[in-house]
Amino acid sequence: MAPHAERAALVGLVTSSSRGDADHSLDELAGLADAAGATVVLRMLQDRPRPDPATFIGSGKVASLAAACDEAGVDVVIFDNELTPAQLRQLEERLERKVVDRTQLILDIFARRARTREGKWQVELAQLKYLLPRLAGSGTALSRLGGGIGTRGPGETKLETDRRRIRVRMQAIQKEIDHVRQRRSQLRERRQKQSVPTVALVGYTNAGKTTLFNRMTDETAVASNALFVTLDPLVRRVRVPDNRELLVSDTVGFIDRLPHALVAAFGATLEEVSEADLILHVIDAGSADRERQMAAVRRVLDEVGAAEVPTVAVYNKTDTITAEERRRLRAADPSAAVISATEGTGVGELLQMIASRLALDTRRVSITFDSANESDRQQIHRLYRVARVISHVATDGKVVIEADVPRRFIERLTTVESVEPQ
Ligand SMILES: Nc1nc2c(ncn2[C@@H]2O[C@H](COP(=O)(O)OP(=O)(O)OP(=O)(O)O)[C@@H](O)[C@H]2O)c(=O)[nH]1
Ligand SMILES: [Mg+2]
Question: What percent of the chain has pLDDT over 90?
Answer without folding.
Answer: 36
